Amino acid sequence: MRNVLLVAGIALAAAAGAYELGRQQAPPPVPAAAQTQAAPALPAPPPVPPAQAAAPAAPSTPPLPAQHPAPRDFDHFRVGNRNVKALAVDGGTLWVGSSGGVIRYDIANDKFVVYDNKNGLLSNGIFHVHRHGDELWVGTYGGGLSVMNVTTGVWRGYNVPEGMGDAFVYDVMRARSGDIWIATWSGVNRIKGGRMDDIDAWELHTVASTGGGLPNDWVYGLAEGANGEVWLATEGGVARFVGGAWENWTHAKGLGAPYDAVKAQIDLTNDPGNQSRHHAQQKKEQGLENVSVAYNPNYVISIAVDAAGGVWAGTWGGGLSYFDGTAWRTYTVSDGLPSNHIFMLKRAPDGVLWIGTNRGLSRYDGKAFSTITEKDGLLGNSVFSMAFAGNGEVWVGSFGGLTRFRKGL
User: Fold this and answer.
1) Which of 216, 299, 381, 384 has the smallest set of CB atoms within 10 Å of its CB?
2) What is the pairing mode between strands 180-184 and 169-174?
3) Is 88 within a domain?
4) Quick one: CA torsion of 308, 222, 80, 363, rounded to 10 degrees?
5) Which residues of the chain have pLDDT under 70?
């Protein structure tokens, strides 16, 4: 197994974790021989990173026992005790968003550079990364929206003074109409025609401005439907914007599983309602003040629209809900999910839905769920992000780093 230094920590000079290349036999895994190197100094942008040191040769992999499942080829990229909340593949470049900034990784040449609040970003906490034309768009935790020209390495920022609802940017989406939508913790921005530098093109939609059509000002996710409608995941349910009109769905309208149906399946006792006044108030308003575990079916973190126009909504302890345009159906652990806490939803190029949970990564093919976990090669079971490369490789972000499955999943 070979080990190559990949990423620095939260500061550029911090020590990096090891890049482990291994083969998985599940169970048990074939251990990777870890060897950590000191982190080299990284150059200032534009990002032309230094070449990494040559990796030691990998020992041979032991033969598989008879009738054992074929192993998965995978690499582990470690980033320390941080969540990888965002991933994007852009040709031969992987963009990684974590609580330590943004990493630009040249996959073929095994080179990287880190961007943080010392060289372009206003905040190291990253929720969203996406390539828009010649620009990289980065949603941050408290630093607004940072945009980098990938050719020049020059950054510019958008924050509350420019019209942003909030400095916490969870998701960004360019609709087919050309409008740009930005999900924040104080409503959702719509920038007509994508005219980011025209203050008159900026709109802010909140619970108050929509007359309750947006059910909650904390907006976590965005998705576009087949007819251009915009779907929003919020802390108070799912919302839809179409033709200038708002509509929403909450647990009272069928979203999420009832508490009695899932209470025996909830293994997370770290309830946000016990840690912040905001979340406690949310639960009280929704009649859940007596539920002390991590359960809120109106708390929707992720959202996706499938090829048929159906809407998938991942809830906090209430399972995975599906809306066919008429009614909601919710899938839980009883239906094959590994957990009812859904962190991520991602549609693969082949249309398959992938679901990130705190107990692994699930695949739904329209009939059944199948799950991979650490024993199958994942670096961590808490899955927050995913990206598909054009060569068939699949990247999965979790707590502690990310996993590359070389032959896909």
Assistant:
1) 381
2) antiparallel
3) no
4) -10
5) 1-71
In a domain, 365, yes or no: yes
Map residue 82 onto helix, strand or coil. strand
Q: Is residue 289 part of a domain?
A: yes
Cα–Cα nearest to 350, from 336, 361, 337, 366: 366
Q: What's the confidence (pLDDT) of residue 71?
A: 56
pLDDT given for residue 287 in this prediction = 79
pTM over 0.85: no
pLDDT at 334: 97
Other Cβ atoms less than 10 A from the Cβ of 23: the count is 17
pLDDT tens for 42-83 read 333 333 333 333 333 333 333 333 333 445 789 999 988 899
Structural domains counted in the chain: 1
Query: CB neighbours of 373 closer than 8 A, spacing ≥ 6?
Result: 338, 359, 360, 361, 381
Four-point Cα dihedral 247, 253, 256, 258, nearest 10: 160
What is the Cα gyration radius of the chain?
21
Strand arrangement of the beta sheet that strand 369-372 belongs to = 342-347, 353-357, 360-364, 369-372
328 close to 338: Cβ distance less than 8 angstroms: no
| Tokens coding 360 | 């692994």
pLDDT at position 248 is: 98
6, two tokens: 């990949």
Query: What CATH number is attached to the domain comprising 334?
Result: 2.130.10.10
CA nearest neighbour of 98 among 129, 142, 122, 52: 129
Alpha-carbon distance of 95 to 84, in angstroms, equals: 11
Q: What is residue 40's predicted lDDT score, i.e. its pLDDT?
A: 34
Domain extent for 288:
262-372
Look at residue 276 in the predicted model and tell me its pLDDT: 72
Largest CA distance in the chain: 68
d(CA 370, CA 2): 30
Task: Answer yes or no: is 313 within a domain.
Answer: yes
For residue 377, which of 399, 340, 404 has the smallest C-alpha distance?
404
Helices first, then strands: H and E counts in the chain: 2, 28
* 342 touches 357 (CB < 8 A): yes
